[in-house]
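Entry for the shared binder. Reason: the reviewer on the internal report wants the predicted structure included alongside the sequence.
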Amino acid sequence: MRFVVERDALAEAVAWIARSLPSRPVIPVLSGLLLQAAADGLTLSCFDYEVSARISIDADVTEPGTVLVPGRLLAEITRSLPGHPIEVDDKDDVTLTCGPASFNLVTLPIGEYPRLPELPRLAGTVDGGVFATAIGQVTPAASRDDTLPVITGVNVEIEGDMITLVATDRYRLAIRELGWHPARPGTSTTLLVPAKTLSDAARMMMPGTPVRIMTRGTEGTGASRNGGTDPAGSLRAADAMIGFESGGRRLTTRLIAGEYIKYSSKFPADFGSYGDMPAIPLTEAVKRVALVAERGSSVRLSFEPGRVTIEAGTKGQARARETVAADFSGEESAIAFSPQYLLDGLAAALTAAAGTPPSASETPEAHGSGKPEKDATAAPAEGRIRLQFTSPTKPALITGSPGPGEESAPDYRYLVVPLRALTST
């Protein structure tokens, strides 16, 4: 094998692949990164029986071939190399030369490496910018507790031309709906995707570039707008996989087997109080006030006519307070939250208030040519955050709305338990 490749292209590709390498591989060979040089370029990939990643880049290949090298070491090397073209050959060990720098890498046994999974069944396509934004809005709410695998995933419900993403860690619950182009109209299914892998997939998505969503073995997994799958379908889903492909990159992951929570019942029928506040001033105020909130302490919001006061502090130490304009209605006027939980919800609702590009179902003629998505920090000044609650101990709902007096954006909802309720359990 012998090829020449641009340093930046190789470093970026290796860094992306390395994110999917297992931190503690069950067998040493799974720590490897597979390099396949062919006439049409260079393909890099990895697979640990759960997650696979593959990327193709341009390279000047003079001798095709395949080698398996230590992945994380290759990532460290390519990241540190000077800005010269990189030449790679495997006459003895793998030799990597870049300008005056040269490295020899010991290869791993290719014969012991697993074959990457194929996902021939196309489920549909979605705009990369819209999908990446949706993923970023819900994944912060997914649990990190590996003893409860089901809630470490994002529940992906597909119903016709709509996708609903749901994530929870039992103390907050995030829901985002978006349109897409199903390959088979009328598709209805539920897939439980690991949140970490879904976040990694979002890193390869670009606004205006379609993302191909592929599945394997997901037939009969069932679907429920109320959360949950049928037990038989969940068992079949144990060997099912989902894949995302866009811009020469592909990421696949095995689905999580199990029944998701019935989340619809978590939303109260109505709320006794609500505050309607400017999105950016509120978010920035909470960020500043939260600087003095120690671990386990709260950020408190107290409403009165025309304004909300945000305050936090530690007894005997620093305290902070800031006021923001607010339209308020209701009898209960104060509520407190974990700073990080509140900030996660505000950041996602701020994106909803800023607005996103039309969904795939709204602009079928623009399939594959969508416009770049607005950045959350570019939200219009009139973007609003709406906080609805009933008492200091019952879940509150955070949503975004385009402007004063307008209805909340229906595609994103964030339900969060107040801190007083958390500390009492």
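Summary line for the report: The chain has a mean pLDDT of 86.
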